[in-house]
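As agreed, record minuted below.
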Amino acid sequence: MELMERPRVAVVTGGANGLGRASALRLAEDGRAIAIWDRDAAAAKRTMAELNRRDAKAMAVEVDVASPESLEAALITTRDFLGPVDILVNAAAIIGVDASVLETPLDEWDRVLAVNLTGTYLASRLVVGEMAERGWGRIVNFTSGARHGTPALIPYAVSKAGVVPITRAFAREFTSRGVLVNAVLPGRALTNMVVSRVPEEIVRNPPVAIGRYADPEEVAEVVAFLTSERNTYMSGGVVPVDGGG
């Protein structure tokens, strides 16, 4: 069994807000040192301050997850301050503009896929090798029910569909080397990204079997398990946290 002389280091992309923030706060409860990688520097610092108030070791790094150079610089900074990365949660995502399939601008397609899909791949590729060398690592990605096809948000739908084969490919290559890779499929959760775009009546009465939207903390609880030492056999899976759909 691996002996640790330091807290495990967890990077949360998009950790400044929403499900990323909830995941960062929950992982800190398990004694993780937290690196928030987010392009919203001000919000990332606020989340870092909240983590510090909870006596967690944390840092905030301004990152563009679609840029290999930005990610590499963030990794160097994180290593210098916290140590090698043991856990990666790919929560960085944007929804994009509402537009029909035929009217979606190409630059919007490129922008959404660059963050949601390419960003997930680049961040995972950046850290997985060192995890495998040490024989332990956990990666959790976020997909979405939109992956089945949402006409008004086709770049988002395609990007979230693409997260699934990325998850399974990394799992198949690295599980035997101690790195367990999974995806979480949340239903709509009460985050600003969702609530700001959904009519108030649907927020109050969502078409969900459980009868309500998820709190971000409920999704984060699943992330905490998948990234924990308690998870010893789950890899390559897509775990729904959607209130029964």
Notes: DSSP finds eight helices and seven strands in the chain. Residues 9 and 33 are 5 Å apart (CA to CA). The two ends are 39 Å apart (CA to CA). The longest strand covers residues 179-186.
